[in-house]
From TrEMBL:
Residues 1-33 form the signal peptide. The keyword Nucleotide-binding does not apply. Residues 351-452 form the CBM2 domain. It catalyses: Endohydrolysis of (1->4)-beta-D-xylosidic linkages in xylans. This is Beta-xylanase. Residues 35-345 form the GH10 domain. PANTHER family: BETA-XYLANASE, GLYCOSYL HYDROLASE. SMART domains: CBD_II, Glyco_10. Pfam families: CBM_2, Glyco_hydro_10.
Length: 452
């Protein structure tokens, strides 16, 4: 019997409304298989493109992106004094070691961060009462131990962090108050002794443009150089606000370079008032591109490190309520326009990456009381893949029991599926599909999938 189109549509509609959970949802993630990763673009220019990382997160998609896209890592917190010596004489190097090991396994540099700072120190240090001789000893010992531990393995150290106030006077800190401004020279000298091959930096924020604070830093570096104190570079943190890249950024980088030191953009992020809109993200792309371009334009600018590559791992929302979206990847690890801004500045494609060129579509094709069958379709248009991995996280305890046309592994809620030996290639204009059975109970919400 021939089924009429309208009765077919009716049956389909009934099926779908009768089981809303069966509704297929397209969640697309841009793939960049056709673009060189940022680290390849940076390598070709002899520049660093780095990211701050959290050691415990270096697995799954986070680890995959950190390893594939960046040629340098900075521990976001793991090497700070409070992290490594929470109790006097008791050391915890676990996360710092993990990051250095990961970097070495991925052919990446490490930027050590940070040795002498007023913040994130252990309470035994900040609450103690010390003579200047004791303080000096504590600082020198800390530097000797930490820099010595990673001797020969780190490209650079932020030896002194944030020594200035906004008006260019010295910040009143444990170190300045106890040792005077010369704590900076002492720290640099101790670091050089502990690892002669690491580049030694002073790092600060709001010193990206020419202003009172950056001029104080400039004068300090000039006098350290004149005195023969070991100083190799200045770090411009670059915690910036949308639309406010200082117009004198390149000029400022150049004046430090002219002093005979390297310059690194060390903690780049560009925050905005939430919610992010298309217009704000476009401005952010322009801003990221401008910052990285200013660095690329000056040969002594070694490169740029972003302070977390994903909005899910950024300090901004905690510190500036209502603001965020400051990094080049969104919370689901999809590259934002800012990613293209960085790529463009590094000499990559000047058109936006092929967003949506390859997409993964997750759908539930049938569902019964305890189980369901799902499928994922990977389709490419204007790009192609030679291998693929699709990741998602279940939100309601769903559990995969069997998969076909892909190898799927589930750890907790996290599912990761890779191509079978015969269907890794997805040509431009083509698609591949894989399927699975899974258990559910209560509800079966559709996950967001990412394609890597
Ligand atoms: O580790 C504890 C955890 O045990 C606890 O459950 C949790 C609860 O809040 O806090 C965790 O510590 C947090 C730590 O980051 C690790 O996530 C601290 O509260 C939080 O204050 C700390 O923030 C760090 C911040 O430095 C402190 O100033 C940020 O992650 C880190 O990105 C940020 O980095 C600094 C640079 O070192 C220097 N330049 C400025 C930059 C931004 O502040």
């Amino acid at each position: 019997m021939r089924t009429s189109r309208s009765s077919l549509r009716h049956r389909l509609t009934t099926l779908l409304t009768g089981a809303a959970a069966l509704t297929a949802l397209l969640v697309a993630a841009p793939a960049h298989a056709a673009d060189p990763p940022l680290r390849d673009l940076a390598d070709a220019k002899g520049k660093v493109i780095g990211t701050a990382v959290t050691g415990s997160k270096l697995t799954g998609t986070y680890g995959q992106i950190a390893g594939a896209e960046f040629n340098s890592l900075t521990p976001g917190n793991a090497m700070k004094w409070g992290s490594v010596e929470p109790t006097r004489g008791t050391f915890n190097w676990t996360e710092a070691d993990q990051i250095v090991d990961f970097a070495e396994a991925h052919g990446q540099q490490v930027r050590g961060h940070t040795l002498v700072w007023h913040s994130q120190n252990p309470s035994w240090l900040t609450n103690g009462t010390w003579t200047s001789a004791q303080l000096s000893q504590l600082m020198n010992d800390h530097i000797a131990l930490e820099v010595g531990r990673y001797k020969g393995r780190l490209a650079a150290w932020d030896v002194v962090n944030e020594p200035f106030n906004e008006d260019g006077t010295y910040r009143q800190t444990l170190w300045y108050n106890g040792l005077g401004a010369d704590y900076i020279a002492q720290a640099l000298t101790a670091a050089r002794a502990a690892d002669p091959s690491a580049k030694l930096y002073i790092n600060d924020y709001n010193v990206e443009g020419v202003n009172a604070k950056s001029t104080a830093l400039y004068n300090l570096v000039k006098s350290l150089k004149e005195r023969g104190v070991p100083i190799d570079g200045v770090g411009l943190q670059a915690h910036l606000i949308l639309g406010q890249v200082p117009s004198s950024l390149q000029q400022n980088i150049q004046r430090f370079a002219d002093l005979g030191v390297d310059v690194a953009i060390t903690e780049l992020d560009i925050r905005m008032q939430l919610p992010a809109t298309e217009a704000k993200l476009a401005q952010q792309r322009t801003d990221y591109e401008a910052v990285v371009k200013a660095c690329v334009a000056v040969s002594r600018c070694t490169g740029a490190t972003v302070w977390g590559f994903t909005d899910s791992d950024s300090w901004i929302p905690d510190t500036f309520p209502g603001q965020g979206a400051a990094t080049p990847y969104d919370e689901n690890y999809a590259p934002k326009p800012a990613y293209s801004g960085i790529a463009t500045a590094l000499g990559g494609t000047t058109t936006p990456p092929p967003t949506g060129a390859c997409t993964a579509t997750y759908s539930v094709t049938s569902q019964w009381n305890t189980g369901f069958t799902g499928q994922v379709r990977i389709a490419c248009s204007g790009a192609s893949l030679s291998s693929w991995r699709v990741n998602w996280t279940y939100g309601a305890g769903q559990q995969i029991t069997q998969a076909w046309s892909a190898t799927c592994a589930q750890t907790g809620a996290a599912v990761s599926c890779t191509n079978a030996s015969w269907n890794g290639t997805v040509p431009n204009g083509g698609s591949v599909t894989f399927g699975f059975n899974a258990n559910w109970s209560g509800s079966n919400p559709l996950p967001t999938v990412t394609l890597g």
